[in-house]
């Protein structure tokens, strides 16, 4: 059975419309309400495949008849509220360009950090949403499920990071807003971090045991407090570039870890 929208919204004064605009555009509002917005069929499909609960679905009036939207609607729990917006109103709300006009409001998970003895990825003030999303997507791909984010890291559940992660967030356990001390107190796994101050390249390290990889701020790198507790590793750059983008560096580290464990 395909669920039908319960009402058609035409005014931008509608409470839900105002909330969705705020969630799409403001980190402060996402923190205040503990909610975010996923846009488009791909992200909604990723959430459905992970049995992730929806607060509600919004779609444009004309999108309701789209085959992919119909397929999404048939997979929703029957209690999911569905609101249809006039095409003009939906266009004024969305943050994506032209596409299939459907979005969902979801709750942002807030897991409690406990002692960590398995593989994990630590994002130490990585500030670009695209970099964070890429790192989350790579971590999910190689099977690292725990992500620890210090307080200045870009929001893992912001709409921009969700798009960059292509739904990887739904396969991960993400701890946000952590202090460096939170990490040092709870992560028992050996810390590894890329550094320009060592000559020992990644291929000389044994990465077969559980590892906590630290990826740092795009300009300043990993903070001194974490670096002092970590094993520094170098990524070879024979052509002498000053540094690698943090998402590229992180992906190389994660895939070398995977190679040593499964493909050596």
UniProtKB/TrEMBL annotation:
Designated name of the protein: tRNA/rRNA methyltransferase
GO MF: RNA binding; RNA methyltransferase activity
CDD domains in the cross-refs: SpoU-like_rRNA-MTase
Organism superkingdom: Bacteria
Gene3D superfamilies named among the record's database cross-references: 3.30.1330.30, 3.40.1280.10
Domain MRM3-like substrate binding as annotated: residue spans: 14-93
InterPro entries: Alpha/beta_knot_MTases, MRM3-like_sub_bind, Ribosomal_eL30-like_sf, rRNA_Methyltransferase, SpoU_MeTrfase, tRNA_m1G_MTases_N
């Amino acid at each position: 059975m395909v669920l039908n929208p319960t009402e058609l919204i035409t005014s931008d004064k509608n409470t839900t419309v105002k909330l969705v605009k705020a969630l799409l555009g403001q980190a402060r509002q996402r923190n205040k309400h503990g909610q975010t917005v996923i846009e488009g069929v791909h992200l909604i499909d990723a959430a459905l495949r992970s049995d992730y609960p929806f607060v509600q679905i919004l779609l444009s009036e004309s999108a309701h008849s789209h085959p992919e939207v119909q397929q999404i609607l048939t997979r929703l729990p029957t209690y999911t509220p569905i609101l249809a917006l006039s095409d003009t109103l939906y266009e004024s709300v969305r943050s994506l360009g032209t596409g299939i006009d459907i979005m969902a409001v979801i709750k942002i998970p807030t897991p409690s950090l406990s002692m960590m003895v398995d593989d994990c990825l630590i994002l130490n003030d990585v500030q670009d949403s695209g970099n964070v999303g890429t790192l989350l997507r790579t971590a999910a791909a190689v099977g690292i499920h725990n992500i620890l984010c210090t307080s200045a890291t870009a929001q893992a559940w912001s709409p921009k990071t969700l798009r960059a992660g292509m739904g990887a967030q739904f396969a991960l356990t993400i701890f946000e807003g952590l202090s460096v001390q939170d990490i040092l107190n709870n992560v028992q796994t050996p810390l590894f971090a890329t550094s320009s101050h060592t000559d020992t390249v990644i291929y000389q390290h044994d990465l077969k045991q559980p590892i906590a990889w630290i990826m740092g701020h795009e300009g300043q790198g990993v903070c001194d407090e974490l670096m002092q507790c970590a094993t520094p590793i170098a990524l070879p750059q024979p052509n002498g570039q000053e540094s690698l983008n943090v998402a590229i560096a992180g992906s190389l580290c994660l895939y070398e870890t995977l190679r040593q464990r499964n493909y050596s």
